[in-house]
Amino acid sequence: MNKFKKIFQMMYSRNFIITLVAVATLVSIVQIQQIFALPQHTMARRSTFFDIECKGVYNKSIFFRLDRVCDDCYSLFREPQLHTLCKNQCFTTMYFKGCLDALHLNDEIEDIKQYIKLLNGADPNSIVE
User: Fold this and answer.
1) Are residues 28 and 48 in the same domain?
2) CA 24 → CA 18, 27, 61, 71, distances in Å?
3) Which cysteines does the record link by disulfide bonds (predicted)?
4) CB-based burial of residue 46 (10 Å sphere; 0-12 exposed, 13-18 middle, 19+ buried)?
5) pLDDT, tens only, 15-61
6) Residue span of the structural domain in which 53 resides
7) Based on CB atoms within 10 Å of each CB, which residue in 72, 83, 84, 99 is the most buried?
């Protein structure tokens, strides 16, 4: 009986230690993620229609569709300047084109050109070639 009790205590303390280590590891991972988490883009930090030199007609859903391309590109590469460079000049820079390529959105290019034309007031053939 005494031998069984010792084995039970050893197994209990071993399981307890394993559980304690697992919990401590999970807590550490959560803390590290919170420390190194990149800031989220809030509405206050978003560029407005006029800040990025759009001169066409403002359409909220189209603007946010193109803005989402830049958000997704930022999420992919985690390069802070990329979000701004992508949207610069009303989504007509090579950075925006690069984001379309990186996100494999080339099949949507004709629709995107029309969206940019509406927002920018520019000829879609001169955009995102």
Assistant:
1) no
2) 10, 5, 45, 34
3) 54-90, 70-86, 73-99
4) middle
5) 666 665 665 676 566 566 655 554 444 443 445 776 777 888 888 89
6) 43-126
7) 99
The H or E element spanning position 110 is: helix 109-120
Q: Is the dihedral of CA 97, 100, 105, 110 positive or negative?
A: negative
pLDDT, position 102: 95
Same domain, 17 and 67: no
Instruction: Provide φ and ψ at 115, rounded to 5°.
Output: -60, -45
CATH of the domain at 89: 1.10.2010.10
Sign of CA dihedral 15, 16, 20, 26: positive
The pLDDT of residue 97: 93
Query: Is residue 67 domain-shared with residue 9, that is, in the same domain?
Result: no
